[in-house]
């Protein structure tokens, strides 16, 4: 749908890791491509001269991202507006990709939503919807992309999970529930690909990343959210996604300075972890000023159009530049 031709675009220099001259550009589908990590990943593959297919709910933003990708050197860029919870729409997008390009080499699944609030604060229908988008959305995408990869015994599915698929945070119960499930699902789908050595299903688990998601998340905590320090930029996570897609081994790649420490504390010292995690989360991520309850972009997309959020990663305890709304830096 809406293919964009590279002709006339001001191309930037290609990524040095782009294929050798004469090598066929890869066909790459990115879900969650309208924002944050998915958008940064689309940009990174554009620098490798890939044929890109961009999927998220908002066509207008995807079309802007497609122009950015063409300007960065993408061989072609097609937008596929779809909701990942709608299985038929996801399958139709993949079918059109296969018709157009004959194959799909890489799928990066980054579409997801977040809601802040403890278990009894979050309305049941919002809880259900977050789990539906994050878990069933992952299943829908995997089910759509893997059959053709298995047929060719070639292809990679990268599922963007989270360090919150390994630890428990009471104010992120909805999101954590989904991400624990996504980690298990990713691993079991990977196990089931053992009979196709050319097909890999890998996870990338970021820690806090400076994307617009914190400003557009569902939030029932009473206070505005920001990423807790240490904060990485989405381009760093995108680079890890490309590495994970390139490498031969399976498994999960962690991105984030504090991930190992948090996971270790969660596993080795559960009583201490459980006592500290709630207050620390309130201090580091939920001290942004009063906010009325909102379902954010969980049910319907919100108005936002950027790779990055407005937060910086530095500053002791994240006290610097605590702003509530993302900037509109398209790239
Ligand atoms: N930011 C962090 O701190 C962080 C940390 C760890 C893991 N992650 C993970 O990284 C991934 C990307 O997150 P992000 O921070 O980049 O978030 P983001 O900026 O909010 O991007 C999320 C993307 O998902 C799309 N999306 C949301 N619901 C969808 C649906 N139902 N169907 C199709 N697309 C949908 C959004 O676009 P539309 O609204 O246009 O549909 C957007 O493109 C997610 O898996 C997230 O869990 C993020």
Protein model, in words:
It is globular, with a radius of gyration of 19 Å. The chain has one domain: Rossmann fold (3-Layer(aba) Sandwich), CATH 3.40.50. It has helices at 36-46, 59-71, 87-101, 124-152, 173-192, 213-216, 234-246, 259-268, 270-285; strands at 27-31, 51-56, 76-81, 106-109, 115-116, 155-160, 199-206, 218-219, 251-255. It is α/β, with parallel strands linked by helices. 40% of the residues lie in helices and 13% in strands. α3 (87-101) packs parallel to α4 (124-152), α4 (124-152) runs parallel beside α5 and α8 (259-268) runs antiparallel to α9 (270-285). Residues 1-16 and 315-331 have low confidence and may be disordered. The strands form two sheets. It has a seven-stranded parallel sheet, sandwiched between helices. A two-stranded parallel sheet has the order 5-8. Bound molecules: NADP nicotinamide-adenine-dinucleotide phosphate. NADP nicotinamide-adenine-dinucleotide phosphate binds next to α1 and α4.
């Amino acid at each position: 749908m809406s293919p964009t031709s590279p002709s006339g675009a001001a191309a930037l220099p290609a990524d040095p890791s782009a294929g050798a001259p004469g090598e066929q550009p890869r066909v790459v589908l990115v879900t969650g491509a309208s924002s944050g990590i998915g958008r940064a990943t689309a940009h990174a593959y554009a620098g490798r001269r890939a044929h890109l297919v961009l999927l998220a709910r908002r066509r207008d933003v995807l079309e802007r991202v497609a122009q950015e990708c063409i300007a960065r050197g993408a061989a072609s860029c097609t937008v596929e507006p779809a909701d990942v919870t709608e299985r038929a729409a996801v399958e139709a997008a993949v079918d059109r990709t296969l018709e157009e390009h004959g194959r799909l080499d890489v799928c990066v699944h980054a579409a997801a939503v977040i809601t802040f609030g403890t278990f009894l604060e979050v309305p049941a229908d919002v809880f259900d919807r977050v789990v539906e988008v994050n878990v069933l959305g992952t299943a829908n995408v995997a089910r759509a992309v893997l059959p053709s990869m298995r047929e060719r015994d070639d292809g990679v599915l990268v599922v963007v999970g989270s360090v919150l698929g390994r630890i428990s945070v009471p104010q992120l119960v909805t999101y954590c529930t989904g991400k624990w499930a996504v980690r298990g699902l990713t691993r079991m789908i990977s196990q089931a690909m053992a009979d196709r050595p050319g097909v890999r299903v890998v996870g990338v688990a970021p820690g806090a990343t400076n994307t617009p998601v914190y400003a557009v998340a569902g939030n029932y905590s009473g206070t505005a959210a920001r990423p807790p320090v240490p904060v990485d930029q989405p381009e760093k996570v995108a680079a890890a996604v490309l590495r994970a897609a390139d490498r031969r081994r399976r498994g999960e790649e962690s991105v984030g300075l504090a991930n190992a420490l948090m996971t270790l504390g969660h596993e080795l010292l559960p009583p201490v972890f459980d006592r500290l995690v709630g207050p620390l989360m309130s201090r580091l991520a939920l001290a942004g000023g009063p906010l009325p309850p909102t379902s954010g972009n969980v049910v319907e997309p919100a108005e936002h159009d950027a790779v990055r959020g407005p937060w910086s990663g530095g500053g002791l305890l994240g006290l610097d530049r605590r702003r509530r709304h993302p900037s509109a830096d398209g790239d």
